[in-house]
Amino acid sequence: MSLAKWTVGLMAGMSMLAFAAQANAGEVRVTVAEYSAKTGPYFESVKKEFEAANPGITVKFEVVPWEVLLQKLTTDITAGTNADLSIIGTRWLIDFVQQDVAEPLDTYIKPDFKDRFIDTFLSPSIMDGKTYGLPIAASARALYYNKELFDKAGIANPPATWTELQEDARKIKALGTGTFGFGLQGKEIETDVYYYYAMWSQGTEILNKDGTSGLGTPGALEAAKLYKSMIDEGLTEPGVTSNNREDVQNLFKQGKVGMMITAPFLSNQIKDEAPNLKYGVAAIPAGPTGARGTYGVTDSIIMFKNSKNKDEAWKLLDFLFTTEQRAKFTQGEGFLPVNKEEAKMDYYVNNADLAAFTALLPDARFAPIIPGWEEVAQITSDAMQKIYLGSAEPEAALKDAAAKANAVLKK
Amino acid sequence: MQNRFLPYLLTLPSLFLAAVVIFWPVWDLIQISTHEVSRFGQLREFNDFANFAALAADPDFMAALWRTGQWTVLVVGGALLLSIPVAMILNTDFYGRGVARVIIMLPWAVSLTMTAVVWRWALSGESGMLNSALIGLGLIDHNIQWLASAETAFPMQVMIGILVTVPFTTTIFLGGLSSIPDDLYEAAALEGATPLQQFREITFPLLKPFINIAIVLNTIYVFNSFPIIWVMTQGGPANSTDILVTHLYKLAFRIGKLGEASAVSLVMFAILLVFTMIYVRLAMREQRA
User: In the record, which residues are listed under signal peptide (chain A) (predicted)?
Assistant: First the structure.
């Protein structure tokens, strides 16, 4: 019950374990995030294949739910009991580099290894000219729309602009069958990102050129007003602040929502859970000037500086980033290919859904590489929730959030 | 001489264990909270209680502190008010009492996190069971978005908090009730005391020590309780259902301010310590009088 005590107890226990747990020679411990039910079995098979091909090296994967990954890493690193390799959100990487716990991989990376990667996805893991991580998972966001609802409402094409999206949402609402035009996420992880889609289309960036928060700009206000007006007009699902990404995705799968913005893995889920749903994937709508932006995300696998088995760990990395392994992992999880050879495979070339995502990559923004990014994201999410709920006026909420974000950014 | 030291000697092992499990982490927390601390817990220089000052200046912390008070009083009070009659009913002899007792105890057997997850689904606006039930009964005509705002989410969380606290509290009271001799009631009934008088003059006074225990233990549990609020709203929307422990979790593991989080933890520890000491003092003085 008592989390506080539990946490310190855990830290204490871990640090005691630190004396006891001596890394075995030739053992590589890897902390991996559980992306779906397929993650565990995939790494099980990696263990088998890799150990068979590399006698003398044993691999131990620790599969951790995504929500507690950062917490586990924090306690492990504090206690000095971290694994040799770990998957992390690339947006956390700067903290790991600044605290000097991540090992630069440049001594291991040969040109032909580097050449395996698509630059867009490798570059977020490079800091000060050094490569600290390899993109193990990559994703972007695009607009999903329900073709059946579009047909019923007499809409021919997915919306190209936010104005069209509003029009389409009105038509879907007018069907009056308990369906909602636009699924708006207002809870938990990526609540801020959902707002950025509208903000980017106004030509506003998360950070202004001078490094201050973009939340105080007129473009940010326009975007917030757009979402708020859609909520007030009933063009979104009701109770926006009670729906996280999965909740909105579920509404989409149930055919209750006409449009939503999310990641490619929704296609995999629809295939499994709602195979009869007719849907399409399109670009994220553009703003009045034609600006548009999608959110690009990579997760990196990093090597810890205190690892005792770096050479063995590198062998495993080399193995994980072969085309065959990459294809198995990426296709199972519904991510985007990070490997050039892999991207040429039929699976990706002939997949209309994925094509829509890859077409958006030139417009992709990655989370800015700044310390304290998570706090800025939290500030933004909180401000959005206040606006969506109507407990604060958009202008006041954004001004307040911009001031808070700037205070964090100044540090 | 030997006899005077023997008790101390005998308690030494458990004292040592307590020191490792309790005092050492608290000492660690004091260290972290009074120093500049890195993202991964490495201590830097002493920082003049800047972490505590930051808390005092943080409106979210103050709001969470106030809400933790409301949360604790409402859940502990509610569970108490509900548990006394429940325990009294379960203490009487009736057909199917065994089954009734099991039903009351069941929520205790389910993990708190699971309970919270199930309620989160039940309270879902568009596909939740509660809304379909209420619409089916004709009590409401459109879906209520229970978790969308604190006005509906927090009362629901308090209600669930009460629900999961009742089994433990009832158990304590059942133990208390069974220790009251039946002759007292028989004698009172003979003298013409009404059931209400019996409750006020016999049951309640004799149950008091058990009520005190229930208050102290429940306050400690509920004050620190994390899963219900975290699973259902994560303290949101916009921190409007945060209590101290969810606020602490976000500070430590989302934002990475381990120093401020440790300070929150110490504040919580101090509040509980002071509460327990005052309460135990009061309760014991009352008993002696």
Answer: 1-20
